[in-house]
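Supplementary Methods S3. Input chains for the assembly prediction are listed below.
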Amino acid sequence: MKRMTLAASAATALIWATQASAQDKELTLCWAAWDPANALVELSKDFEAQSGTKMNFEFVPWPNFADRMLNELNSGGQLCDLMIGDSQWIGGAAENGWYVKLNDFFDKEGISMDAFVPATVTGYSEWPKGTPNYWSLPAFGDVVGWTYRKDWFERPEIQTAFKEKYGRDLTPPATFAELKDVAEFFQGRDIDGKTVYGASIYTERGSEGITMGAMDVLHSFGFKYDNPEKPYDMEGFVNSDGAIAGLEFYKSLYDCCVAPGTSNTYMGEGIDAYKSGQVAMQMNFAFTWPGFEVDPNVGGGKTGYLVNPKGPNGEQYAQLGGQGISVVANTDNMDGALAYVKWFAQQDVQQKWWSMGGFSCLKAVVEDPSFATSQPYAQTFLDSMAIVKDFWAEPSYASLLQASQARVHDYVVAGNGTAKEALDGMIADWTEVFMDDGKL
Amino acid sequence: MVTSPIDRLARATPPSLARKVRGLSDRTIAWIFVAPTILLLLAINIFPLIWTVYLSFTNYAANKPNREIEWVEPIYRNYARILTDEGTWSNMQTTAHFLIWTIILQVIIGFTLAWLINRKFKGNDLLTTLLVVPMMLSPAVVGNFWTFLYQPQIGVVNYIVEFFTGIPAASFSMLGPGGLAPWSIIIVDTWMWTPFVMLICLAGLRSIPDYIYEAAEVDRASKWRQFWTITVPMVLPFLMLAVLFRGIENFKMFDMVNLLTGGGPGDETLLTSIDLKREAFEKWRTGYSSAYAIILFVTVFGLASIYVKALNKVKER
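Predicted C-alpha cells for the full assembly:
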C-alpha cells in the first residue's frame, strides 16, 4: 500500500512538474480579432522557432474587445500574458496595476523609446501623458484616414460632370468642404448601373464608433479636450465655436451623404460598404488599407488613400488608433512575456511586421527611404501619423467615452437638439466623471 | 388468523423514518434535506442582494481595486443622483413604452390566435407548431436577422412598406432616425413572444368545460354573450399570468434590443437594462449601478406584488 501511495505521489508530482514546465514555455497574447492579429500569428512563428515557446492567441471581435479584456484584467484573470490593449486603456491599466511598468526592462535591454514614432509613444505607452513612464511598447500604429475610388474619380464623364457642377476639377479632397462637395456629388449617382453613395462614416452607438468619427473631424475645426494651461478645464474648448461648427459639419455629412440605413456603422460596415462599391469615399482606420489593396473589387490601383482633410482654418488633425503591447502584471510567465516584447522590438522583426500588413511604429522602419513607396498607402500613413490626436486616456475613459457616444449620436443620428447643446452636455457629463475621480 | 383491513394497513405503514435514522426527528430530517437548497439560495441570491444594497451606498468601482471603498456623502447620494437624473427617467419612459405596447399587442394577437386555433380543423397541430417557432429561437439570432430584415436597401420590411404605400424603400430606416426605432423593437418582440401568450391562452381556453357552453346554448345565450360571460372571465387568470411573465421578461429586456439598435439612435431605444449594463460594466460605476439595480428591483418587485394580488382576486371570483 505504501508503495502504491509513493508511486501515485511521484506520478502526481511528475504531471505537475511537466505542466509547470509547459506553462513556462507557453504564452498567451490577447488582442482584437482583425486582420493584423492574423498577421501577428504568422509573425510570431519566428519567435516560437527561436525561443521554443508556444504562442497561444485570444482574439475578441472589436465590439466586445474592451468589455471582454477589461473584465479579464480587472478580475485578475490569468488568461493573457501579453495584451495589445487599446490606447485609451493605458491610464487605467497603469493606475490599477494591470500592466507591468517597462522602464527598467527597456533600460536593461537597451530598448529606447526614442526609436519609435513620438506620437505612438505618447499615445500607446506613456502614463501620465508626457512623462517618461512606459507601460507598453508601441506595437501597431493606426490612424483614421480616408479611402476613395480612384477609378471612379478618373473617369472622364464623372470628371466632366463634376467640373460642370462645381467649376473645378475632381481631385482628392484636401479640405472637409471639398470632401463634402465630392460626397454630395456621388450621392445617389448611377455608376455602372448601380446607385452609389457619397461616403461611409462612423455612426456606431454601442462602443466608440461615432466618437472616433466625430473627433476625427472636430479636431481640425478647433475642438480641444481641455485648456492646455489648465487640465480638465473644458468650457470654451470642448464647446468652442470651432467645435460646434465641426459637429454641425459631421451631422451635415451624415444627413447628406451616407447610404440609407447606416445609422449604426463602424469599421466592419465601412469595409463592407467600400468593398462592395456602395460608396465613393470611406472613413476608416489605416489597418483596413492592406485589405483593400488585395481585394478583387477595389484593389489593384482602384483605391486612393487620403490624409484626413483640413478644417476651415487650415488645421489638420486625425484621430489616433492603434495599440501598444504590454505585459500583464498577473502573468505567471513574466520572463517569457518580456522576452517576446524584446524580440518584437527588434528592427528586422518590425520590418517583417510591416511587410506582413502590421503598421510598425519603429522609426528605423517608417523613416527608411524605401518605406514611402513600399505600399500605395505608406506615405498617407506616415503623413497621418504626424497629425494624430487621441481621445482621453484617463482611467475613467470608458465613462467619458459613453458620455460622448450618447451626446454625439443623439445629435448627429437621432437629430435631437443642437450641436452646442450636445457639446455643453458632454462637458457636463465629463465634469461629473472628473469630479467622481477627484480631479475637479 | 383473520386480520381486519385496519390491522393490515397498520402493518403496511413503515415505522417513522426518524426512528431509523438514529433517533432524529422528522422535522430535523426535513431540515437536512432542505438545507442544501437554502444554503445555495442564500449564497447565490440573498447574499448578492445584501452585498448590492451595501455597495449602493458606496463609491465602489470594480475596475479600481486599489481605491478604498468609502460611504458616499450624503449616504443616499447614488439614489438621489439616479432619481434626479433626466436620463434615467427618459430611459424609464422608453422601457415603459416598450413594455406597455408589447404586452398590449401580444395579448390581443396571442388571444386571437389561441381563440382561432382552439377550433377543430385539419392541420391544427401543424399550424400550432409553426406558430410557436419564433419563441424557440435565441434572442441573439432574432436580433441579428431582424437587423437584416430592417436594412433599408436589402431588407424585406422596407420593400413590403414600399409595395403597399409607395414610399421608397431606401428613403426611411426602421432602426435609424425618424422615430421608428422604438416601434421596430416592439414589432420584433411581438413577433417573437406572441406565441408564448397564445399557448397560455390556449391552455385557458381548453380548460373551459364544454358543458358550460352547452348550458349557455340551452339558455339561448348568443355567441357574443358566451364570449364575454364565459370565455373571457375563465381565460382571464391565464391571460394575467401571461402578462406577468411577459412584463417581468420585458422589463429586463437586453440582448435583442442591444443587437438591434444598441440603444440608439441617440437614446431612443435605451432601455433601463442596457443603461444599467453600461453603468456597471462599461463605465464601471459599481456603487452607482448597484443603487440603480436596487431601484429597478424594488420597482419590479412592487409592481409584481400588486399584480399578483390582483391576479389572486380574479382567480377567487
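Chain A is about 50% helix and 15% strand. Residues 183 and 198 of chain A are 4 Å apart (CA to CA).
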